[in-house]
Each structure stands twice: as C-alpha cells, then as structure tokens.
Amino acid sequence: MGTRLEGKPVVQFLQDHIKSRVNLLKEAHIFPTLLLIRVGERGDDIFYEKSILKNCELLRIKCTVKQLPSSISMDQLKKVFVEANNNPAIHGIMIFRPLPDHLDLDIIRNLIDPVKDIDGMSPVNLEKVFEGDSTGFAPCTAKAVIEILKYYDIPLKGANIVVAGRSLVVGKPLAMLLLNENATVSICHSRTREMPAVTANAEIVVSAIGKAKFMTEEYFSENSIVVDVGINDDGTGQICGDVDFDGVFEKVQAITPAIGGVGIITTTILLDHVVKACEKIMGYDCVK
C-alpha cells in the first residue's frame, strides 16, 4: 500500500515559521500587508479569496480586497496597479486569474512591481527562477511542490524526476526549482512519445497537466513517488487530480491526494511571500 503525502503537516510547519517572522516584524511596528485584486464575481475566485482571508487572520497578516467590476477598462486597471506599486503600506499584490477577455494579462505582468509580485507572475521573477536567483518569487504552486518533497525528506539531489506539464505557472518554473536542488529533470507534455514509459522510469513524478484522472497505473512503478498538482472536475462535480488516485494509490510508493495535498500548501506559500516581500521592502532581510 502506498503512503499518502498529506499537505496539512507541511502547512503547519510553514505557518509556525511565518508566525515567528511576523512577530519579529511587529516588534518593530511593521505589519505585513497584502492587497488582493478581484475582477468580477467568479465563484472560484471568491472561494480562494475567503481561504486567503482566513489564513491571513490566522497568521496576523493584514489583507485588503480591491473588488472591481468585470467591465473595468485596461486603463482603469493599470491605475489600480500603479497606486498599489507606489503605496508603501502594501507589501504584496495578487490579482485573481483568469481575467475577462478584454483585459491584457501580459500588460499586468509587466506592470506589477516585482518586489510585490508574491504570485510570481512578473517576467522579472520568472527570469530569476530560471537563473537560480532565490531573491525572486517563484509561482506558488511550483514552490509548494518543493516544500512537500522536502518536508517528507524525499531526496532531490541526483533524483530522476519527471514533470508532466510545461506551463509557466507550474511545469517550467518547477523544473528550474528542481534543477536548483541538483535533481535530474525531464519534462513531458502532450507531444511526448510513450509518456508512460518515461514516467514509470522516474523516481518522482509531478503531474501538472490539467486533465482529470489522466495518469493511470501504467504511468508509474511500485517505487514511484507521485505529486499530483491537478485540480479538476471529474465530470460528476467532484474534485479530482490529474492522477487516478484510487487506481494508483496501492501501486506506488507514495502519492499526494488531490484534496489536502499540494493545493492547501499553495496559499501558505503565497502568505510566506507576503512576509518575505515585507522583510525586503522594510530592510528586514535578516529576519528568517
């Protein structure tokens, strides 16, 4: 039988560290502050927003929500970002995505202050990730994968790791983070030939392809450690991952669940980035 790699103890470990840093900042009368920007009333945005607010309260991080109509113009949205960039009381900025079609996300990526870009969307931060520069902010989900592997003492140095998916949100930056840990990394994608043969030979497989239960037992071996990043609807309204968890669980060494796995760590990484940004902006880089 496989081992469930639960996200909850990882979250607790990270939160304890965040709380200690927030307390040190508060002793200096410095209060980490996050600005959430939500355009429209998408249900999943509101759900994620509530989760972030709940965790901010737990970690004593200030959070303000800027709610904007879905009809907002690009020029108006740009003004929101310029104001947030120039506001010294705001240390981290995040905008919920996807945006309405008439808004250009590439403009926002290039407009957001990289120091306040806690979600790792700025080209400046992505460039730092690809250069191995730890002063930048990596996309939170990619960073969450690294944290869960480290928490469970899964060796990365020299490990043969396959990342299934090549997006700029998870796949590519995660591959770079794993390379920084001296892993040997391959990326699979929709054009990869005989993908099951590739992934089954890996020690660690990370699925980030966005297809419900796409990866079945043939993609793995009994020695596989599987990190499932996918959050999908299984067609019946239930949440599932990219991996067929029930069909794979007893046939691999270890696997993260779709619910309670990487996803719950991602929000904690986001708030860790808020504190890191605050430390940097306020000259408290020494706070660890």
- What portion of residues is helical? 40-55%
How many helices does DSSP assign? 10
Shape: globular
- CATH C-level class of the largest domain is Alpha Beta
User: In the CATH hierarchy, what is the architecture of the largest domain at level 2?
Assistant: 3-Layer(aba) Sandwich
Q: What about the largest sheet?
A: 6 strands, parallel
- Domain count: the total is 2
Notes on the protein architecture:
- By secondary structure, the chain is of the alpha/beta class.
- 41% of the residues lie in helices and 15% in strands.
- It has helices spanning 8-27, 43-59, 74-86, 105-111, 123-131, 140-151, 171-180, 195-200, 245-248, 262-281; strands at residues 3-4, 33-39, 62-68, 92-95, 160-164, 184-188, 204-207, 225-228, 232-233, 239-240, 254-255.
- A six-stranded parallel sheet has the order 1-11-8-7-5-6.
- Strand 9 (232-233) and strand 10 form a beta hairpin.
- Helix 1 runs parallel beside helix 10 (262-281), helix 6 (140-151) crosses helix 7 (171-180) and helix 6 crosses helix 10 (262-281).
- The model has no long low-confidence stretch (mean pLDDT 95).
